[in-house]
Amino acid sequence: MVLKAMPITQAGKMDRRALRTMDIPRARIVEVVRPISSCKGPGASTRGVTLEAIEAKILCVWKMHLPLIANNTAITSTSNFFTLGGDTSLLSQVLGTIRRDFRGSLMLTGLSNNLKLHGMTTVAMNKYSIFSLAGTSLDGIAETALPTINQKGVGFKDVNVDQSLIILLTRATGYLVRSILANSINSPKVGLLHCIAIRSLSRIASHPKVINHGGDLTKQYFGMSSSDWQQLGSSVDIIIHAAALVDHIRPYAFLRTANALLTKKMIQLALPYHILIHYVSAAGFGRIVGRPTCPEMTVADQLPPGDIDGYTASK
Amino acid sequence: MIHRPTLLVGKNSPATNVMANLLHYSQEILAVPDLPGVEGSSDFISCNTVASCIARDVLGPTHGVRTISFSNSGDVRRVAVHDLCEVLPSQLRSRMEKIGLKEWLDLARQAGTGSEIVHIFDTLSCPTQIWCETTPTKL
User: Fold this and answer.
1) Closest among A139, A113, A80 to A250, alpha carbons compared
2) Which has the higher per-residue pLDDT, A153 or A72?
3) Which domain holds residue B120?
4) What is the pLDDT of residues A34-72, one digit of tens each?
5) What is the rounded CA–CA span in Å between residue B30 and residue B95?
6) CA B60, CA A59: separation in Å to the nearest integer?
7) Does B67 contact A at CB distance below 8 Å?
8) How many structural domains does chain B have?
9) Separation of alpha carbons A212 and A210, rounded Å
10) Pick the residue with more confidence: A173 or B97?
11) Alpha-carbon span B10 to B23, nearest angstrom
12) Across the interface, do B75 and A249 touch by the CB < 8 Å criterion?
């Protein structure tokens, strides 16, 4: 059976005793078939190296859709489809083949949450979609823990009402941020806007109040040098952080760096100077709080359930 | 401050944006899919309204701000999933018909929707609850 959450002890560890005594109706128990190579046991030392029969068949499906890469790479049971160069379009083609040859009821989310060869084999072999397998569950407490701050705080940065503001913006090429820019750039309160993580500087219009910084969401400090990054921290008054990879198919693990870790990096920059951050999250959290509408309050105590999409979990 | 707008829908929405695909291909094929297993509704609000609210919060008085506050953008126009054609341009609405999901997907596929989005729509044939998500739209 799939639990919403594992019982934990007061120390925060998994409560095995509570698990053993849990009353589970027999009808809710789902038999799960897993490839031998993904199970611990006498052959654990060879885990990831030796492919068993069905994994080899799934690998043939990969090779069919990723011929150039899969035929020239040593693939193990822990190889990841996206890391090998697959994308959502190719994954969709893989789904078509697996549906035809293995399990007709398989959904795309079943594959996108199980991108390793043994995980994909598991969902191909099983009648039920099992999102929580193949390492897709996440440690919400660790993931949302605040980053360590090495710098000594320099005190609150109170923004004067009459002051000309220096604002740091991420993802200035996205719809919403472009619109925020249009709504604020002519205000006399805005002195300077630093737009960071711009992938293509030639595509962005110049403005006397705007400094554009090239960069990328997949890189540390959004592609800036450490010194430039720290310099920004010491000069900006307000941060508007909206940058994110928007993808409702890829799992959390793939969106983690851009969406979760860079947000932590932003907090790390802002904390020593107590810079006010405006973080553009997502209203999809309504699903987590289990109400028709998401209340205007924290959802910090609501960890993302296993079946939520990676994008919403990352926000 | 944490702002919670929702999925953005517009001309340059990514190919994997489900709502954008639903609205775009419904306009293309002049039909909306019947989704009997799906319950819930979405809020629609213009992108500019959300942006101007955020800009107002950013440029507003921040002296003494020490706590986290939250701002949800929505509740401007709530549309039930079964009435999604209501958010399409008015000249199209009267010509819209509701057809089965499978037929809709076949037509959408012919009109050019990607196979991955077709597979995502497959999940809507199962009982699904859509919570009220605000959807700034430029349609």
Assistant:
1) A113
2) A72
3) 2-137
4) 565 655 555 444 444 556 778 888 999 999 988 877 777
5) 7
6) 56
7) no
8) 1
9) 6
10) B97
11) 10
12) no
Lowest mean pLDDT across A78-82, A137-141, A245-249, A271-275? A137-141
A233 pLDDT above the threshold of 70: yes
Residues of A in contact with B8 (CB under 8 A): 174-176, 246
Q: What is the largest CA-CA distance in chain A?
A: 71
Give the contacts of A312 (CB within 8 A, at least 6 positions apart).
A282, A284, A285, A287, A288, A304
Chain A residue with the nearest C-alpha to that of B80: A292
Q: Which residues of A touch B114 (CB under 8 A)?
A: 89, 92
∠ Cα A199 A222 A282 (to 5°): 85
Residue whose tokens read 């009982």: B127
Annotated domain spans of chain A: 16-136, 142-314
Fold exhibited by the domain A16-136:
1.10.1200
Count of Cβ atoms closer than 10 Å to residue B109 Cβ? 14
Contacts of B48 in chain A (CB under 8 A): 179, 183
User: What average pLDDT does the segment A200-210 reach?
Assistant: 83
pLDDT band at residue A263 under the 50/70/90 scheme: very high
**A240 Cα to chain B: minimum distance (Å):** 8
Written as one string, the DSSP assignment of A121-187 is HHHHH-SS--TTTTTT---HHHHHSPPP--SPP----PPPTTSPEEEEEE-TTSHHHHHHHHHHTTS
B20 to chain A, any CB pair closer than 8 A? The answer is: no
Over the stretch A8-18, which tens digit does the pLDDT of each residue have?
777 767 777 78
Q: Which residues, at least 6 apart from A210, have a Cβ–Cβ distance to it below 8 Å?
A: A181, A185, A192, A193, A195
Mean of the per-residue pLDDT values for chain A?
Answer: 78
CA–CA separation, A91 vs B108, rounded Å? 19
The tokens for A152 are 């000594």
Q: Residues 6 or more apart from A113 whose CB is under 8 A from it?
A: A119, A131, A134, A136, A251, A310
CATH superfamily of A142-314: NAD(P)-binding Rossmann-like Domain (3.40.50.720)
Verify whether the Cβ–Cβ distance B119 to A298 is below 8 Å: no
B55-70 tens-digit pLDDT: 988 888 765 566 888 8
Could you give the ipTM of this predicted complex? Answer: 0.74
pLDDT of residue A159: 58
